[in-house]
Amino acid sequence: MAYQTIQQEYLQIPVVTRAYTTACVLTTAAVQLELITPFQLYFNPDLILRNYQVWRLITNFLFFGPVGFNFLFNMIFLYRYCRMLEEGSFRGRTADFVFMFLFGGLLMTIFGTFVNLVFLGQAFTIMLVYIWSRRNPSVRMNFFGLLNFQAPFLPWVLMGFSLLLGNSIIVDLLGIAVGHVYYFLEDVFPNQPGGVFLTCHNISLFVFFFFFKTFKNIKKIVTTPNL
User: Fold this and answer.
1) How far is CA 61 from CA 80, 194, 200, in A?
2) What is the predicted pLDDT for the residue at 217?
3) What are the transmembrane regions (predicted)?
4) Where are the alpha helices (DSSP H) in 35-169?
5) 176: which of 3, 23, 103, 108 is 20 to 30 A away, CA to CA?
6) CATH superfamily ID and name for 2-223
């Protein structure tokens, strides 16, 4: 009976949120059980281009470190805001939600190449939080009973909290930046005078072209023999 209840609750989670959070938990469990190591998961353009280890483009978004406070903190925020987005502004728009994942992942991969970030899951979580916060500006937030503020300040509060824990804010800034790019192209620019609604198709063509050109240049650098 308890199993059926848990199963029903699990299946009620929106499909994209369910798939991503499950993949993150299973990846962390596999590392915890020493079935795989983080060295097989991290983002490395050299290994991707030289050895065709293309899975690293995905797995670097699935590992949030060993089981502990940081992992639980990220999972709670990832699940909460991913689900609220999927059930809120993306309700009935699963394809657009998946596109947002791809768009954010591609931009983070490109930027992550230049700032030497090897795991981008936390940045992705911050991106989701940022987009939700900008689409729900009037919501009042309570952070652990200590702070009260409007939703748009949440990503910055999380960045400050991360800084207090001694973490680098580069990851958080990357998530905020990518989230703002998506929010601007999807919600702001089409409403500007002369602004054109940028469809998923148009944006994806631009991003994939930019992604292809960037990695083509990186591959030239990586594969050029040292003299």
Assistant:
1) 17, 36, 22
2) 56
3) 57-79, 99-132, 153-183, 195-212
4) 45-50, 56-59, 69-87, 94-115, 121-135, 154-164
5) 23
6) Rhomboid-like (1.20.1540.10)
SS3 content of the chain, % helix, strand, coil (to 5): 70, 5, 25
Beta carbons of 158 and 129 less than 8 angstroms apart:
yes
Handedness of CA 27, 31, 35, 36 (dihedral sign): positive
What's the average model confidence in pLDDT over 8-21? 93
CB atoms within 10 A of CB 89: 16
Closest CA to 108 of 175, 43, 49: 175
- Asked whether 69 and 162 are in contact (CB, 8 A), the reply is no
Whether residue 113 is predicted with pLDDT greater than 50 in this model: the reply is yes
Residue 170: CB atoms within 10 A of its CB come to 14
| Domain chopping of the chain, boundaries | 2-223
For residues 112 and 224, give the distance between their C-alpha atoms in angstroms, rounded to a whole number: 21
pLDDT above 90 as % of the chain: 56
pLDDT at 71 over 50: yes
Quick one: tokens of 66? Answer: 């060993």
Which positions ≥6 away from 219 have C-beta within 8 Å?
49
Stretch 91-119: mean pLDDT: 90
Summarize the confidence of residues 99-120 as an average pLDDT.
90
The model's confidence at residue 180, banded by pLDDT at 50, 70 and 90, is very high
The structure tokens 């591609």 sit at 106
